[in-house]
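Re: the request from the purification team.
They wanted to know what the chain is likely to look like in 3D before they choose a buffer screen. I agreed to run a prediction and write the result into the notebook, where they can find it.
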Amino acid sequence: MYENPLIGRRIVHAKQKGAKVYALGKSEKSVTFNIADETFNSSVQEFLNAIESKIDESSVIVFNYVDSKEDLDKLESIKCKVLPVFSNSNSKGTFDFVESKSLDEIVELLENTKALLVFDDVVDKLDYDFTRISKLISFACCENDTTKISDIVIPIKTWLEQDGSFVNAMGEVQNFSSVIESDNLSIIEIIDKLNE
């Protein structure tokens, strides 16, 4: 609810109108657990088995983590609306272009990577020692934990300095326009130049 207040607000409103809330989480101290009718800190499969008889086509499952690709497949097979809540904008849009990888697959890829280009992101979300990669190159609009360990940092436009779009969790494209001029290149302009 704190990380995604607009979605959290809709859940609270649904609860006020009589909706039943079943929460699966890793921490019983979460705000969502405080408003839930029933709480679970089991596996996704155990959670689904427990609520299976309580959900129907009008139900909505909102989730922000899975432990495996199999969990994601289980959630997507339910005959109700399933809404993933991603930690970053464009995560939903990325799934249309990139095949998802497990944590083990990602670590294996990193182990065999000699140069890694990081576009305006922070790599600390993954428990991996990125200093082991020969060349870490960051494209960022401001200093962050990734730029601090990078071999090369290239400044880019902020979202205020460029036209672009985000893809929200519902898969809808949200456009935005620049409001400030900048001589820096945007991520798209940099990728276009790398492809030349």
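For the purification team: The radius of gyration is 20 Å.
Please add any questions underneath this entry.
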